[in-house]
């Protein structure tokens, strides 16, 4: 559809009966359709949200969905006070209907809907290489969070698929095998040098224990800005999520001192091992290395091509990741709608932010 056929598009609110069409829309248009956009995902995100029903707005051409955007309620703790916010995500437009202002229309409507429901702030993490960032900043009154530097870091494991895009596939296969051999040696050296201290144990949880909030209360209070990670929030985020996650905890003499969550994503020829979330008690941050080593073991076992992780630069976690060998892939922008709540966030303070605080995993 050309711009000459541009219409005065209208935004409509999602109804439960839209779930099948919404799932089919993402299956058709989203690059990783096998891993994203199912009916179950939107049921979980919007309908079964543990705080309140989420917002999904659509633009239709007749009965056909041509553009969509979601707004997921979350709770952000600002210097100890829990505040209801919402994350804008799932922005996608049928290629035949692009460049008609649909994204800006959906962002503005979804932001307005959230604020009318009493949600205090609205944020997103738009990809800087797509048209979404200009739509947020130039047309919807969003600005990047000041004083916060988030990066996406990766550790390459098997580089064969990347090399094969540039040279003959056989050369790429040899190069990948050669590089992977060095990664295995690196892992074995790290493992040999990193013995578990007496009393430390790693467990994989199938559900969160009843006393989880004791850990959360102690770990969360050391941050000025942190999204909720109590038992109810993490049960919804990971255990009730239709996608599969692995939840590791580190215990010191049977006391939980930290955790890490991972997920495996297949994107065409690339298998990514995602470190989705992590948090440790004050004074135990260095033990993140123990669970990082466990992530290497599992990533190598499943044949992942790389390990990926988001972190706040300047944090102890970022220092550990970079010392471990992770390298910067790209900068992550956290943008907020500019209202009174966004102005509160402009003060100095310590942030914790991982990829699980976004809709990217």
Written description of the protein model:
It contains 11 helices and 16 strands. It has helices spanning 19-29, 39-47, 102-116, 132-139, 160-164, 169-193, 212-220, 231-239, 288-301, 316-324, 340-344, and strands at 11-13, 55-61, 64-78, 81-93, 121-124, 142-144, 150-156, 200-205, 225-227, 246-252, 255-267, 270-280, 306-312, 327-332, 335-337, 351-352. The protein is globular and about 65 Å long. The chain starts with 10 loop residues before the first strand and ends in a 9-residue tail after the last strand. The relative contact order is 0.15. The model has no long low-confidence stretch (mean pLDDT 91).
Query: How many beta-strand elements?
Result: 16
List low-pLDDT spans. Answer: none
Largest sheet report: 9 strands, mixed
Euclidean distance between termini CA atoms: 32 Å
Helix content: 25-40%
Structural class category: alpha+beta
């Amino acid at each position: 559809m050309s711009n000459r056929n541009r219409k005065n598009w209208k935004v409509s609110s999602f109804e439960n009966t839209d779930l099948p069409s919404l799932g089919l829309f993402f299956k058709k248009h989203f690059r990783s359709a096998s891993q994203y956009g199912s009916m179950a995902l939107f049921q979980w995100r919007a309908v079964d949200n543990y705080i309140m029903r989420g917002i999904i707005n659509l633009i239709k051409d007749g009965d056909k969905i041509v553009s969509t955007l979601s707004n997921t309620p979350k709770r952000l703790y600002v210097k100890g006070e829990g505040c209801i916010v919402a994350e804008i995500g799932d922005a996608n437009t049928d290629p035949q209907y692009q460049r008609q202002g649909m994204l800006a229309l959906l962002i503005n409507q979804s932001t307005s809907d959230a604020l009318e429901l009493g949600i205090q702030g609205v944020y997103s993490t738009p990809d800087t290489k797509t048209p979404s960032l200009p739509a947020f900043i130039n047309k919807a009154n969003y600005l990047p969070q000041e004083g916060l530097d988030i990066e996406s870091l990766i550790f390459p494991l098997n580089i064969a698929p990347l090399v094969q895009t540039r040279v003959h596939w056989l050369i790429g296969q040899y190069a990948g095998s050669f590089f992977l051999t060095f990664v295995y040696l690196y892992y074995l050296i790290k493992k040999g040098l990193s013995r578990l201290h007496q009393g430390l144990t790693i467990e994989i949880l199938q559900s969160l224990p009843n006393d989880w909030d004791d850990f959360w209360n102690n770990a969360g209070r050391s941050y000025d800005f942190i999204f909720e990670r109590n038992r109810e929030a993490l049960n919804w985020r990971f255990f009730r999520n239709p996608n599969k996650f692995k939840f590791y905890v580190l215990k010191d003499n049977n006391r939980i001192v930290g955790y890490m969550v991972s997920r495996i994503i297949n994107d065409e020829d690339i298998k990514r091992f995602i470190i989705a979330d992590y948090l440790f008690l004050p004074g135990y941050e260095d033990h993140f290395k123990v669970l990082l080593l466990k992530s290497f073991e599992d990533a190598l076992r499943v044949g992942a091509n790389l390990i990926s992780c988001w972190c706040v630069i300047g944090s102890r976690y970022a220092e550990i990741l970079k010392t471990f060998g992770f390298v910067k892939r790209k900068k992550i922008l956290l943008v907020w709608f500019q209202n009174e709540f966004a102005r509160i966030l402009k003060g100095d303070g310590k942030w914790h932010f991982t990829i699980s605080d976004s809709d990217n995993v």
